[in-house]
Specification:
- Helices cover about 35% and strands about 20% of the residues.
- The protein is of the alpha+beta class and about 220 residues long.
- The strands form two sheets. A seven-stranded antiparallel β-sheet has the order 6-5-4-3-7-8-9, covered by helices on one side. Strands 1-2 form a two-stranded parallel sheet.
- β5 and β6 form a beta hairpin.
- The chain is globular and about 45 Å long.
Length: about 220
């Protein structure tokens, strides 16, 4: 069972011990009864996926979060570009592409996927003619990454996603500028990203933000 002492932040590697009861109750208190049920479902995914292969973990996590709704930041949070924490995303059952990618990233870290295999990646989605965010998984440093996306819900190699043009990518340690569907050029620490740094200070359940719009239960 994924239970024990609650840490103030989900940002960590290796896996953290999480107090499921406290997290579920916190989401229920902030966002309503169904938020508590979603948190229970999230912990079930963690429990059931813990002993699976990396690819099975990717599938379970991708499928779970892709059931959530896409909601524009301005409508949901009253902020044109708010990076919600995974707990906020689960609490309100929706968000934009950044929120999908961030929630998948931290959940896979919690399941023991090594941080160096994961990158949150900003792309240009040619089908939408706008910037978009996905999560990339690298089985090996030189491998073609697998793309976890809320637009195309099937996990595919980056070479099969000609609709996505990579711009930059990052994880908890590093930032890369991408010129092609590969690893990209190292550009320093991910702490250069202001919104990422802000997000890391809001990862626990102590600083849950209230949405601007009414949550549809």
């Amino acid at each position: 069972m994924v239970t024990a002492l609650l840490v103030s932040s989900l940002y960590a590697s290796p896996t953290q011990n999480l107090d499921s009861t406290k997290i579920i109750n916190a989401l229920k208190a902030s966002y309503g009864e169904r938020a508590g049920l979603r948190a229970k479902a999230w912990f079930k995914i963690l429990d059931e996926s813990a002993s699976l292969s990396d690819k099975q973990k990717l599938e379970n996590v991708n499928n779970f979060f892709n059931m959530f709704r896409f909601i524009d930041d301005a409508k949901l949070w009253g902020d044109s570009n708010y990076w919600a924490s995974p707990m906020e995303f689960i609490g309100v059952s929706g968000g934009d592409c950044e929120d999908f990618s961030i929630a998948k990233y931290f959940t896979l870290l919690q399941l023991g996927i090594p941080e160096e295999k994961l990158r949150i990646t900003m792309v240009k989605a040619t089908s939408l003619n706008q910037y978009h965010m996905v999560l990339a998984y690298y089985e090996k440093p030189s491998a073609i990454p697998l793309v976890l996306d809320n637009l195309d819900k099937q996990i595919k190699p980056a070479t099969q996603r000609n609709d996505l043009l990579p711009v930059y990518s990052f994880n908890g340690k590093q930032l890369w500028l991408n010129k092609e569907k590969g690893r990209g050029q190292l550009a320093g620490s991910s702490s250069r990203l202001e919104k990422w740094t802000d997000l890391k200070h809001r990862l626990g359940v102590e600083r849950l933000r209230q949405p601007k719009m009414k949550i549809m239960e």
